[in-house]
Amino acid sequence: MFFNGWEIIGRTLLVGVLAYVGLIIILRASGKRTLSKMNAFDLIVTIALGSTLATILLNNNVALAEGITAFVVLVAMQYIIAWLSVRSTVVSEMIKSQPELLYYNGKFYYSTMKKSRILEVEILQAARSSGIDSLEKVRAVLLETDGNISVLKKSDTGTEQSTLRNIQK
């Protein structure tokens, strides 16, 4: 129960190092987008890669080649979906959420906050984290597609390219 022999320890060490190196090579070849923090699909791929690595390490019935193949399949599927989402609005809308307005020009959007499970205190905390001491200085607070809360300050100039152009008010 506590020790099953040196052969299993040796296999775990060897397969662990090789699987880890294989995963790094696959991820480097696939580009930065593979593990970016953009949407739920990326999170699923990240968790699946970790689960696959754990299975390769701990399950003697899974060969290294099978594990590396699973890595390639997961990364290839993520690459294909990301490629399609850039070229197809239908695919993009299926896998990506839209940013949501939580606060705009002095008004909290409580229905959006409730749907997104965001409390007013979290918006205040996000403003403080952005170095803002008063909501009077805030134009908008958004829940981004990756789950982060963005705080946009009011502009001093009247000539601004709004970053809110893809947000429904």
TrEMBL record:
<dbReference type="Pfam" id="PF04239">
    <property type="entry name" value="DUF421"/>
</dbReference>
<keyword id="KW-1133">Transmembrane helix</keyword>
<keyword id="KW-0812">Transmembrane</keyword>
<comment type="similarity">
    <text>Belongs to the UPF0702 family.</text>
</comment>
<feature type="transmembrane region" description="Helical">
    <location>
        <begin position="6"/>
        <end position="27"/>
    </location>
</feature>
<feature type="domain" description="YetF C-terminal">
    <location>
        <begin position="88"/>
        <end position="157"/>
    </location>
</feature>
<keyword id="KW-1003">Cell membrane</keyword>
<dbReference type="InterPro" id="IPR048454">
    <property type="entry name" value="YetF_N"/>
</dbReference>
<feature type="domain" description="YetF-like N-terminal transmembrane">
    <location>
        <begin position="17"/>
        <end position="84"/>
    </location>
</feature>
<keyword id="KW-0472">Membrane</keyword>
<feature type="transmembrane region" description="Helical">
    <location>
        <begin position="64"/>
        <end position="86"/>
    </location>
</feature>
<protein>
    <recommendedName>
        <fullName>DUF421 domain-containing protein</fullName>
    </recommendedName>
</protein>
<dbReference type="GO" id="GO:0005886">
    <property type="term" value="C:plasma membrane"/>
</dbReference>
<dbReference type="InterPro" id="IPR007353">
    <property type="entry name" value="DUF421"/>
</dbReference>
<dbReference type="InterPro" id="IPR023090">
    <property type="entry name" value="UPF0702_alpha/beta_dom_sf"/>
</dbReference>
<feature type="transmembrane region" description="Helical">
    <location>
        <begin position="39"/>
        <end position="58"/>
    </location>
</feature>
<dbReference type="Pfam" id="PF20730">
    <property type="entry name" value="YetF_N"/>
</dbReference>
